[in-house]
Structure formats: structure tokens, C-alpha cells
Specification:
Blueprint: E1 3-6, E2 12-17, E3 22-24, E4 27-29, E5 32-46, E6 49-58, E7 64-67, E8 70-72, H1 79-91, E9 93-110, E10 115-131, E11 142-147, H2 148-154, H3 158-168
Parallel strand pairs: 5-10
Antiparallel strand pairs: 1-2, 2-5, 3-4, 5-6, 5-8, 6-7, 6-11, 9-10
Length: about 170
Amino acid sequence: MVSACQEPGGLSSRHVPQEHGTQVGGVARYPTRRAVSAGGLVYEDRPEGRWVVLISRRNTAGQLQWTLPKGGLEDGEDLEAAALREVREETGLECEITQKLGIVDYWFVWKPDQVRYHKFVHYYLMAHLGGDTATRDDEAEDVVWMPLDTALARLSHPNELRLIRAAEMSWSA
């Protein structure tokens, strides 16, 4: 059975329940669900090199994190459509997908729902076509264009960094 859930950013994701909650040694063990999201690395090639977009948002501890835009799939939406929509909503930018970057997966517990998620995020490399960051939604605290090397140094999540580093070799400048 597939149903919608809320992920930490309040976005709808698709998930498949995989097991039921149990007690282990007197400690509650949360049920596990699978969540799927999509997003992208927006780029623009300029005379001084490749520039990309990162967004910033606060984690549950209030710390600022720099990351790639991403979010959950809506009913009937495929991965590429979700990635383009999420990037447009979170950055205000119109893009086209030029290649698949890969999949990042990680685990997290969402305590309000008492669920442990195994999340799979499908990322795409996206060429910037237009748009304006002033028209974005308020999910991200900031949206910033920066040189690729600056972005790689600023990314908060090592799994996103590894994904981009691995894809760099196949990019044509």
C-alpha cells in the first residue's frame, strides 16, 4: 500500500510501510517507512566557470544548512517532474534536466509521527533557463548562486557532496 506522508520540511512524500513498530528491551522501536523525493543541482556556465544554486534552511536544532533543493512527489507525478517542480518552488528558477546525477539515501526519525524513514532522493543536473529567486516559496531561508567550488565547500551534507563530485567528471563545460 502506498500513501502520502509529511517529511521534515512539511512536504508530501510517497512512502511504503515496511514494518510495524515494536518494543525492544522496553524501548519503543519506530515503524520503518520508505520515502522518495526528487531535486536538482541548478547550474549556469559563465565565462569564469560553472555557477550553481544552493538553498539554506534550518535543521530541527536550528542550525543553518546549505543543501540542494528537493522535495516529495505529488500524486501521479514522476521523479523528473517532481524534481523540476521542487526546484522551481524552492528557488523560483525554471530549468531543464540535462542528466541524472544519482540517488542519495539516508535514514532519519520523524518524531512527531513516531516513524523511522529510509529516504531515497533522486537528483538531477539542471540547466538554468530563467526565473527569479524573488518568486520562490518561503521553504528555504536563502537561495544563492555561487561558483561550483564555493558550493562544494559550503554543502552541509557529505552525501550530496559525494554525488556532485562523482558527477563532475561527466560534465561538459
